[in-house]
Amino acid sequence: MKNRLKIERAILNLTQEELAEKIGVSRQTINSIETNRFVPSTVLALKLSRLFGKSVNDFFELDDDDK
């Protein structure tokens, strides 16, 4: 799965720590999502969607391997 979380976070000028605090996870969780080591739960993806005011599909996309 590919994601644009790092890009979207940079647009809002948020650090990983600031984003983590806003959605109730650790900075390490944000880092793991951004580096594709962790696939977020549906609840976490929806929290990100709400915070950024964008659809989940704006953040996450399936790789060819995932299809």
UniProtKB/TrEMBL annotation:
Q: Which GO terms describe its molecular function?
A: DNA binding
Under PROSITE patterns, the record lists: HTH_CROC1 (PS50943)
- State the CDD domains in the record: HTH_XRE
Instruction: List, for all copies, the residue spans of the domain called HTH cro/C1-type.
Output: 5-59
DNA-binding as a keyword of this entry, yes or no, is yes
SUPFAM superfamilies named in the record: lambda repressor-like DNA-binding domains
What start and end residues bound the annotated signal peptide?
A: none
Q: Which SMART domains match?
A: HTH_XRE
Q: Which UniProt keywords apply?
A: DNA-binding
Gene3D superfamilies tied to this protein: lambda repressor-like DNA-binding domains
According to UniProt, the name of this protein is Putative transcriptional regulator
Organism (species): Flavobacterium sinopsychrotolerans
